[in-house]
Specification:
Elements (H helix, E strand, L loop, with lengths): L1 H8 L1 H19 L6 H10 L1 H15 L7 H17 L4 H24 L5 H20 L9 H4 L5 E2 L2 E2 H19 L1 H11 L1 H6 L4 H27 L10 H11 L11 H20 L7 H51 L1
Antiparallel strand pairs: 1-2
Helix pairs in contact: 1-15, 2-14, 4-9, 4-10, 4-12, 4-13, 4-14, 5-6, 5-7, 5-12, 6-7, 6-12, 9-10, 10-12, 13-14, 14-15
């Protein structure tokens, strides 16, 4: 029983169980929701949100937040589209787009780490600046006529899994190994848990926070590359508003907004679950204008319900482990009081 309790308190397992339960409930209403094709499409649709949630997690681990990722993704997609339509080599295009993400993340990191600008203020400022640069760069026009060879990457399959999904799986594995197995990776959690304590023991707090924002910007630029690959054109509002979904997905996956807690695997599962929640409304035949309100309500319901369930499991585990000893200690204290009175 104790093993089962510990297992259920594991965030990654609990989010999987919640997804299964959600599938069962929605599938009982509309059986098409649980078909293999539907699940495959939803996993593919979650890749952009997933890779951005992984990047955002690095920032959240350090007790910061990055709300500029939607604009970085939009600018990256615009640069990718313009360069490809102008005939530039795809490898060089990819490197330039990745540099865009790294550079913007570096600016955010310098502002937060060196100049001590609160992360929400810094990234809100760069959100507007980057969005403006994107519109100036594209002259407010949609970018179309993306070369077919680039769009075909989105449908390339290996073992029944498309290329973008394989790419995201690889990046998640690398990020997980880095954070859980490498000494420097654990610094992100230490900085978020207690920045002053991390400084006092000599951890490179400046470099950790700077890298966190660079990783976030890099993940947004990768998302931009995948977006162009999947969609085949770039609207002038690409990435607008997605930053809130990214943060919500990470939190749904168990990443703490106060820093120091969570995992990129949990954030990835949160992104998939968030996509499933959004897509489920289509199968429930709910009008589109209800989508945001109902998705937000379901997100809150799931997060709060899961939190209460974990608190219940913890209290039961605590009582079972320490209840008898506390009771015995109380009885001993009472006996001592009787002796003193006598």
């Amino acid at each position: 029983m104790a093993f089962l309790t510990r297992l259920l308190k594991t965030r990654e397992l609990s989010i999987v169980l919640l997804m299964v339960l959600f599938f069962i409930v929605i599938g009982s209403i509309n059986s098409n929701f649980v078909s293999g094709d539907t699940i495959s499409l939803m996993v593919k649709a979650s890749t952009i949100l997933l890779i951005m949630a992984v990047g955002q997690s690095f920032v959240l681990f350090t007790s910061n937040i990055d709300v500029s990722v939607g604009s970085i993704m939009g600018l990256s997609a615009a640069v990718c589209g313009v360069l490809l339509t102008s005939g530039m080599n795809v490898v060089l295009t990819v490197f330039i787009v990745l540099f865009v993400g790294i550079a913007t993340g570096f600016v955010n990191g310098i502002g937060v780490s060196l100049f001590r600008v609160p992360s929400i203020i810094m990234t809100l400022g760069t959100l507007g600046i980057i969005r403006g640069i994107m519109l100036i760069y594209t002259e407010g026009m949609w970018i179309e006529d993306i070369p077919n060879f680039y769009k075909k990457y989105s449908s390339m399959e290996f073992l029944g899994v498309t290329f973008p999904v394989w790419m995201v799986i690889g990046l998640v594995i690398i990020a997980h190994v880095f954070l859980s197995r490498m000494k420097f990776g654990r610094y992100f959690f230490a900085v978020g848990d207690n920045e002053d304590g991390a400084k006092s023991v000599g951890l490179p707090v400046f470099q950790v926070k700077l890298l966190a924002f660079i990783f976030s910007g890099l993940s947004a630029s990768i998302a931009g590359l995948i977006f162009v690959m999947n969609i085949g054109f770039v609207p002038n509002q690409t990435g607008s508003g997605i930053e809130l979904q990214v943060i919500a997905a990470a939190v749904l996956g168990g990443v703490s907004l106060t820093g120091g807690l969570g995992s990129v695997v949990g954030a990835s599962l949160g992104a998939i679950f968030f996509t499933i929640i959004s897509n489920s409304l289509i199968y429930l035949k709910i009008p589109a204008y209800w989508n945001d309100a109902i998705s937000g309500f379901l997100l809150l319901l799931i997060v709060v319900g899961d939190s209460k369930f974990k608190s219940y499991l913890f209290s039961k585990s605590f009582k079972r482990t320490y209840g008898k000893s506390v009771l015995k200690k109380g009885e001993n204290d009472h006996d001592k009081e009787d002796q003193v009175v006598r």
